[in-house]
Amino acid sequence: MGELMARARGGDGAAFAELTEPYRAELQVHCYRMLGSLADAEDALQDTMLAAWQGLGGFQERASMRTWLYRIATNRCLNARRSTARRQAREWDIPQVQPPEPTRLGEVVWLEPCPDSLLPESRYERIESISLAFVTALQVLPPRQVAVLVLRDVLDFPAGEVAEMLDATVDSVNSALKRARAALQRRQPAGSEPPPAPGSPAEDAIAAKFVRAWESADLAALVDLLTDDVFVSMPPVPFEYYGRELAGRFCATIFGAGRRFELVPTRANGQPAFGAYLRGANGVSHGTGLYVLTLAGDRISAMARFDNSVLPWFGLPRSLPSR
């Protein structure tokens, strides 16, 4: 590594890429966690790599390359959260469909899903630490608490290293961690069952029931799959619905307008997800969005709908020929 570092410090871009490539995927996920947006995460990652390239001469190797890169990435994300206005909410955009009055207007309208294909196979990553619920909760915490929580509880950096990354004291890091954990705990639904293991027969069974219900517009079957406290969201539209009754009314408006769909399975944030394609009169189904399911036991406890701009991230086409 010494020779590679010397070459990189001498301006060898290929050597720099070889030094940093092993950490690129996990850094992108780290930026996504902190910012909640895949597009913003990619911008932060590019800024991180540029800053690392320009600052390589000052890297004294007292910490590992990984720790040094995380310090840069974390501070780039903190700057982004403090100085950049978050994306604006968008108005309801489904023609001829009048949704029911939402429970409330959501705060995190910039949230975007993360394809499972981007998640590194690393001991530093745990499925629950990339779930939509966790990433959403991070967005409403103060930025410094987010950084401490992710670096300590998700990535297992020691308190001393985190303090150095953030130019803080160990006491302040520990205090921020305590507050962040308490805030997250308050957002946890009481008594919720754990989800089935990813890719397990139990998860596959729930997903199959959802597909059958949604594609056949079987509202009763769909509602039967939902928990009593189910949560429906649809960033960047701010509408949020809580509870089985309101969720059922929302789905009824979609089905009642005569809209029929085909669903294509994929995965996002370690969770089952589906590209949704609206069947057209000409035999072509057009992509309308992506649904991501959160499971609790043998039920669906949350459903997030994202617009069709995210479909290419999942390798999904804009349209499908008729079956």
TrEMBL record:
Pfam families: Sigma70_r2, Sigma70_r4_2. Residues 133-184 form the RNA polymerase sigma factor 70 region 4 type domain. One of its GO terms (molecular function) is DNA binding. It comes from the Bacteria. The keyword Ligase does not apply. Keywords: Sigma factor, Transcription, Transcription regulation. One of its GO terms (biological process) is DNA-templated transcription initiation. The keyword Transcription applies. Transmembrane segments: none annotated. Coiled coil: none annotated. Belongs to the sigma-70 factor family. ECF subfamily. NCBIfam families: PRK08241.1, sigma70-ECF, SigX5. This is RNA polymerase sigma-70 factor (ECF subfamily). It comes from Kutzneria buriramensis.
